[in-house]
Amino acid sequence: MEMTTTMHVGMLTGGGDCPGLNGVIRAVVRKGEAHFGDRFVGFRDGWRGLIEDRTMVLDVERCRGILPRGGTILGTSRTNPYRIDGGAEQALATVRRHGLDALVAIGGDDTLGVALRLGAAGVPVVGVPKTIDNDLSATEVTFGFHTAVQIATDAIDRLHTTAESHNRVIVCEVMGRHAGWIATYAGIAGGAAEVLVPEEPFDIEAVCDRLRARHAKGRFASIVVVAEGAMPSSGTLQVASAELDQFGHPRLGGIANFLAPEIERRTGFETRVTILGHVQRGGTPTAFDRVLATRFGVAAIDAVHDGAFGTMVALQAGDIVRVPLADAVAEPKTVDRGLLHEVAQWCLG
Ligand code: F6P
What we know:
CATH architecture of the largest domain: 3-Layer(aba) Sandwich
Shape: elongated
Bound molecules: 6-O-phosphono-beta-D-fructofuranose
Strand order of the largest sheet: 3-2-1-4-5-10-11
Structural class: alpha/beta
């Protein structure tokens, strides 16, 4: 049953930024203010803002014009209150000091994992899923993913013409730490020859064999799409180890720099590298992501007023639903093997 009491609601965005975050913030504030008469406070830079009590004004006026803008007006960080001495206690004290009736946390598995723990400690929290990697369980898709896939596909389209002009192999590295969703979608949409994902270690010699076979059939250019988290099967190729962030994730990027020279050495095909990096996360969200972000935002403020704390809004079978936060952070959602094998094997290249 909907509670129409006016509330004081805090909001933050955590983890890597993502096109569509501003759409969520705007929708929460618009429905909150206009329909429920809520007041909002924005916490700066993810959980760090809650720990340090750094806030910003958040109202309909402040949200004007932000729907098509990438990034997040609240700022973000990968700060983990549970990895900072007294961090969680300071965050709880901030919630009490502001007299918050609810906190809307917009983030991926790390941010929502913290939300779950703070929820257990008494914070009335509602989660909104966010990740361009699309690796969050319990929701079919997150905003930002569609934008990233479009950016990667546009890049692959461009790489095709230069690769064909020079008879080259081009290794295009995309984001995707634990899951190869961007690589798979952009690889299929862009007609890549190969898609390498973190879920399935690749054998460098098998990749080279397929490229040789392809070029023997008269093709002289190939695009290899590799997710940044893809790994060679053990003992087949030496790659660098990476430093860890506060959630224990390696800072990735650069597998293509190992892959490309090895492909060139083994096949003799001239090979180049393009690492798309943060270009995939920047800039304006697609229309699809703006709509999804807006639907999530409206659903999140409804969840707040229904007292549905400890839940996350999610997309399932086209509908916005509520799922327990615990379900969302339980397991990363890995690439659909049917898509990768049954669809891609006939359509790549
Ligand atoms: O948010 C997910 C992600 O985009 C990953 O794909 C990537 O590995 C990581 O963030 C990069 O993080 P940062 O911007 O902190 O280097």
